[in-house]
Amino acid sequence: MAIDVFPELNAPTVTIMTESPGYAADEVEQYITFPVESSVNGIPGVRRVRSASAIGLSIVWVEFDWGVDIYRARFQVSERLNLAEERLPPDVHTEITPVTSLTGEIMLISLRSPDGSVSPLALRAYGEFDLRNRLLSVPGVSQVVAIGGELPEYQINVDQDRLRLYGLSVKDVVRAASEAHSTAGAGYLLNVEGLEIPLRQTGRVTGIEDIRSTIVAYSESVPVTIGQVADVVLAAALKRGTASEGGSPAVVLTIQKAPGTNTLALTEAIDKALDSIEPGMPPGIELNRHAFRQSNFINLSLENVVRVARDAAIIVAIILGLFLLNVRTTVITLTAIPLAMALTLLVLWGWGESINVMTLGGLAVAIGVVVDDAIIFVENIYRRLRANLLAKEGDREPRLTIIYNACAELLNSVLFATLIIVIVFVPMLFLGGLEGRFFRPLGITYMLSIGASLLVALTVTPALSLLLLRGKLGEAGRDTFVVRRLKALYRPALRFVVRFRKVTVTAALGLTVLSLCLASTFGTSFLPEFNEGSFTVFVMAPPGTSLEESDRIARGVEERLAQIEGVRSVVRRTGRAERDEHAEPVSNSEIDVVLEPGFEKVEIRDKIDEVLAAVPGMTTMIGQPIEHRLSHIMSGTPAAIAINIYGDDLSVLRKIAKEIEAAIKPLPATRDVAANREVMITSLPIRYRHNELARWGFTPVDAAEQVRSAIFGEKVAVVNEGVNIYDIVVRLAPEHRERVQQVKDLMLRGRDGALVRLSEVADIGLEKASNLISRENAQRKAVISCNVAEGYNLGDLVEEVKRRVDPIVAGVGYTVSYGGQFEAQQSASKTLYVMGGMVAVLMLLLLNMSFGSTKTAVLVMVNLPLALIGGIVAIFLTESDHVGRNFLALFGVGGRYEAPVISIASMVGFITLFGIAVRNGILLVNHYAHLIKEEGKSLSEAVMQGSQERLVPILMTALTAVLGLLPIAWAAGEPGSEILAPMAIVVLGGLVTSTFLNLLVVPAGYALIFHVPKLDNAIEKK
């Protein structure tokens, strides 16, 4: 089976990327993004189309409904793109990026030269052409993106002064350079003395000198070569991003996996490939394969989950031994665990499911429950066999008959109880979106485990009982010491609650109301915070900041982060790499901070906050790699809350974004508040005067292409040298394109050979323009994002944010939506509430069918509110840093009340709890009916005897479930237990109160609704 950290979480998304060099953001939106968006809107199954238009780049994300086949989706998008390309500018090309997922970024590796002997040019060439291609050959790797160093290319840096000397223009050099490299074949000679001889031409560029000696024109019958008007070098291409490790320049390669690939197996395959590559690396290059590894988190998470599952199994075995004090019955009961688990894994394997934290979590949570059916059957069989031994020799029944009757007595109760548990988990199957992908595997695994345990209890348990429970079975008719002590404590309590039944039921009702009042003060969240062992730190300089300046600022932050005690490695990526699917401007940096094992995450984050606070004028955000990618899947931002403002006017959107940022930043519950990067930056527009162009013999296309060739450059050919691929690019020399005046003085060549300065045919002047334009579903939008500060919760923060934001947006007539984790939390909560209500009604109908009595069915359903009490109290105790202080704060005494948080994981815990709690009620009430109907007991006798006889199986099933969950609860905060621990805490607390109250309130309620007469002394003595 495949092994991963989480189930496949990626919504089927097709990413369309269009490089458009030289275009401003608003031009990219108008000429590229909008046509592409229009072409893909309306494809069946598309749920959202998002886009980002940045300088020279358009990215469109086409998100399909969950479950849509990604390859079919790509084919549909490709069909539409073929039509859209007719409307795009002729010099741009759209491409669909490789199939991968946002959570598929499994490794970061870095290359650097510690002694500086390898140049950035050579370092990037090795990483880009050698190492990248080797890694792409590993099956399962879908994409490798390199950033940093200097990407080599053949540059023809034209000197304008030398061009004027010969009366030439950049256009002439572009034409000549395009003819410097030829890969044309010459065919072959058909039959030369019986041989077929291919012709080989050597017109290819093999070095700088080949380009330099290429002719541009004749001047006075003397050839003018490229080398006479330009400097030809192998140098660094223009770049939009850079990288470093620990403050030293580096090349960072991001390795992404294909969806469905086993992360651990792929990481192992990559390590093997790197093992074979490292010995042959050029001297002076150092490879760090531990810059970031998702497999570390996966291994640690799975180890922790397996460990708590093992501990839970040991605890269950101890509990069974204490109650039964019989090796044979303990062995029979414990057999249910491996058999049920094995059956569950076989079914999951057959369905093609992976082993991940959620499937293992379903098994771990179920460990204490899968023995319940076996416990119930074995306890009843054991008790009946011992009672049979007390009978006279002639009155004893065959062992097979005893075992059959003991199982048949409980069959109806166990079947209905198991059915109830399975039905309770049905709402989880209806969860949609990301929350469904998270919790559905856990629910399915749990349901399969319960079903498998029932199958084992109905088949293997009776068979083993027949084989093993022979001969002397302890002291006939006598309970174990533990059972005797429990019954001695239970008997007077039972008499008391039955006698004072109204007071008991009223007190239980009061406790339920109080617990619900306490729960109303709780906050909400989507998922608990993960402990990934690493942080992702975003450092955003003011938009418009150059790459060189943002690199300098981010390097200072990186160096200080590397000095924090407990930090293992720091790797930074600034700007955007080629082929990267993120429209990051050069002003943005993403820093991956990997922690040493054993250091507290909160302490390290506080130190990171101190470093970031010392950098003025920067927008910063701290997340974790997997967490921020999950947020990207939900809202397109790396934060927990995304406030999306929709409208057409960019200036209004900017104004609203600033107002909202100012309004929510002072809130103590917010951190990392950031308005989106759609701000005005300085640009240099060139507006051609058409009459002047015509006067000098230019068309707008002639002029625009010459300007682009001179400033941005023109790629005229591609040279292959082994695995290395170099572009040949013509542009002005760097010293001729540094200032605005040089752009104005740029010489253009008209159709009749006339040379004219750009300023003579165009108006040129600085002005402000957008740097990034975001769109969603054909509307422009501004995004303000934020995270939740320590000690606060998502639900309360969103309500406060809405209170401040809604009036601002309504004032200008625009619309607002709230996305991110809040959106998923709201969707999941609504589904669970609605489906939960439907399941409660179905449970009542099934119970009524089982008992033939509505009053009895309602009595059993009383276990649900009884279970709520403990679950709510458990959340309050575990979520409060200082329980006493927080309890007083609840009543306005002392400091601020820190609302405990109910996450979707906690709600799933309540679902688990309800099924187990109702089962205990079914067993108790069904046994009353059995004693009355089959053994002729009176109502009073049935309540007293039935409650005591069911005490042991109920306590055993409850204790095995509770104590089986203790290792998971203790592991709270450890990798892999972040989602399971809140579930375990709720179930643990709820089972404590529901079991205790079930044994007291259900007998009292039964006595109340069925008018059980007052107990006489004879019954009390029994």
Draw up the topology in text:
Elements: E1 13-19, H1 25-40, E2 46-54, E3 57-64, H2 70-84, E4 93-96, E5 105-112, H3 120-136, E6 141-148, E7 152-158, H4 160-166, H5 170-178, E8 188-192, E9 195-198, H6 208-212, E10 215-219, E11 222-225, H7 226-229, E12 230-236, E13 241-245, E14 248-249, E15 251-257, H8 263-277, E16 286-293, H9 294-324, H10 327-334, H11 336-350, H12 357-366, H13 372-390, H14 399-424, H15 426-429, H16 433-468, H17 481-499, H18 501-519, E17 523-524, E18 534-540, H19 547-562, E19 567-575, E20 588-595, H20 601-613, E21 619-623, H21 625-635, E22 641-646, H22 650-664, E23 670-675, E24 680-683, E25 686-688, H23 690-695, H24 700-711, E26 714-721, E27 724-732, H25 740-744, E28 747-749, E29 755-757, E30 762-764, E31 767-770, E32 772-776, E33 779-788, H26 794-810, E34 815-820, H27 821-851, H28 854-861, H29 863-879, H30 883-890, E35 901-902, H31 904-934, H32 939-970, H33 980-1009, H34 1017-1021
Parallel strand pairs: 7-27, 17-35
Antiparallel strand pairs: 1-3, 1-4, 2-3, 2-32, 5-15, 5-16, 6-15, 7-12, 8-9, 10-11, 13-14, 13-19, 18-20, 18-21, 19-20, 22-33, 22-34, 23-33, 24-31, 25-30, 26-27, 28-29, 32-33
Helix pairs in contact: 1-2, 9-10, 9-12, 9-32, 10-13, 10-16, 11-16, 12-16, 13-14, 13-16, 13-32, 14-16, 14-27, 14-31, 16-27, 17-32, 17-33, 18-29, 18-33, 22-26, 27-28, 27-31, 28-31, 28-33, 29-31, 29-33, 31-32, 31-33, 32-33
